[in-house]
């Protein structure tokens, strides 16, 4: 067994340092009634850091917290025991790995305990910590008694809530696996553009930070201000059925990339209703890597005629109605009539809903490249 050093057992007392913290933090901590006592395990190779953290936490009145310190992350992971800890505070800058290997190993070895990352680097570390299994991250330069206690307690409460839903985990994992098999990027976000989920294909687009990025507030943005404004407008249109003509509101746009002559194609469709709130799904594709959907498959799945299948596929590839009519040498009246029939047969009412149906259905899965 490793020897954990207990640096501070906190008592319920108000100190001068705590009184100087802002009123909002005091009010928040006073409302922490569900977590009355917690053990924090700090993993980091600097004893001075552990002493500083212990001093900061000693200024917290509520809840009662206890800090333990382990300098060797690998030895702790090998034991596969949480030593009674309720939350792990991992010093990311002392592990020496840039790919979150230590964090992932912690989550595998001790999945019952949430992990909060301590770092100096928000952009290169903090933003990606949650995607690799952390509940939250703390910036060393912004540490206060309140912010640290708030983050650690919130991590415990969120993890407990997730554990209560453990029965649905296999279903969620299966759904994620399906989205990861799609041959295009999928990004789920709220009406305020905050990202909730993205699949593996979207991850590759986002990691390049060329065209689309996730900012410090976890909002999906276009790198060019003019295109980011357009993205916001299209999102607003997508989430407002009353905007524009029925069935013909704009839902697709091109996103410029500095590292490629070909822009990304982004299509938006609404998700979520009622108490769940509004949101949108972004389908992101690269024209250099076209998604080859089968018109025959689309027609067979949704009982469409060949002409209707061709139109459905054209919309799915991000083309506009007037462009398709001009390319095929037919009138707008013809393509609109075909679109109405497609809506009727697919039980949709908007182009974005139609695209979402096709891109998340069997036709797209059939087009997905084989997993090697």
Quick rundown:
The protein has 372 residues and is of the alpha/beta class. 44% of the residues lie in helices and 18% in strands. It folds into 3 domains: 5-164, Response regulator (Rossmann fold, 3-Layer(aba) Sandwich), CATH 3.40.50; 182-285, PAS domain (Beta-Lactamase); 295-367, Winged helix-like DNA-binding domain superfamily/Winged helix DNA-binding domain (Arc Repressor Mutant, subunit A).
Question: How many strand units?
Answer: 13
CATH topology of the largest domain: Rossmann fold
The multimeric state of the shown protein is: single chain
The assigned structural class equals alpha/beta
Strand order of the largest sheet: 1-3-2-4-5-6
Give average pLDDT, whole number: 79
Shape: elongated
The helix fraction, in percent, is 40-55%
Rg, please?
25 Å
Strand content: 15-25%
CATH hierarchy class name of the largest domain: Alpha Beta
The number of helical segments is 17
Supply the CATH superfamily name of the largest domain.
Answer: Response regulator
Q: How would you portray this structure in words?
A:
This protein is an alpha/beta fold and about 375 residues long. It has 3 domains: about 5-165, Rossmann fold; about 180-285, 2-Layer Sandwich (Beta-Lactamase); about 295-365, Winged helix-like DNA-binding domain superfamily/Winged helix DNA-binding domain (Arc Repressor Mutant, subunit A), CATH 1.10.10. Helices cover about 45% and strands about 20% of the residues. The chain has 17 helices and 13 strands. The protein is elongated, with a radius of gyration of 25 Å. Mean pLDDT is about 80; it is low at about 1-35.
């Amino acid at each position: 067994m490793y020897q954990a050093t207990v640096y501070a057992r906190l008592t319920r007392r108000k100190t001068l340092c705590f009184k100087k913290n802002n009123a909002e933090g005091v009010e928040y901590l006073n409302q922490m009634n569900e977590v009355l006592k917690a053990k924090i395990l700090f993993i980091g190779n600097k004893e001075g850091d552990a002493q500083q953290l212990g001093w900061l936490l000693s200024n917290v009145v509520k809840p009662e917290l206890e800090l333990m310190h382990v300098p060797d992350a690998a030895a702790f992971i090998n034991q596969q025991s949480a030593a009674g800890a309720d939350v792990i505070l991992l010093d990311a800058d002392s592990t020496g790995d840039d790919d979150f290997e230590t964090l992932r190993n912690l989550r595998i070895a001790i999945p019952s305990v949430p992990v909060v990352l301590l770092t100096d680097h928000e952009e290169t570390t903090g933003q990606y910590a949650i995607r690799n299994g952390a509940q939250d991250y703390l910036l060393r330069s912004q540490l206060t008694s309140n912010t640290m206690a708030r983050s650690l307690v919130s991590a415990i409460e969120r993890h407990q809530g997730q554990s209560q839903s453990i029965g649905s985990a296999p279903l969620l994992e299966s759904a994620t696996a399906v989205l990861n098999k799609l041959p295009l990027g999928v990004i789920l976000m709220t009406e305020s553009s905050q990202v909730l989920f993205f699949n593996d294909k979207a991850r590759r687009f986002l990691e390049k930070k060329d065209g689309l990025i996730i900012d410090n507030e976890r909002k999906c943005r276009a790198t060019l201000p003019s295109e980011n404004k357009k993205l916001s407008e299209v999102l607003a249109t997508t989430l407002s059925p009353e905007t524009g003509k029925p069935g013909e509101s704009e839902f697709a746009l091109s996103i410029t990339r500095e590292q490629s002559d070909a822009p990304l194609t982004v299509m938006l469709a609404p998700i979520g209703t009622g108490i769940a709130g509004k949101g949108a799904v972004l389908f992101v594709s690269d024209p250099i890597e076209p998604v080859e959907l089968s018109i025959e498959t689309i027609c067979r799945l949704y009982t469409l005629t060949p002409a209707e299948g061709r139109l459905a596929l054209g919309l799915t590839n991000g083309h506009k109605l007037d462009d398709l009519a001009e390319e095929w040498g037919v009138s707008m009246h013809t393509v609109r009539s075909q679109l109405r029939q497609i809506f009727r047969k697919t039980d949709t009412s908007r182009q974005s809903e139609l695209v979402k149906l096709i891109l998340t259905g069997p036709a797209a899965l059939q087009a997905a490249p084989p997993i090697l």
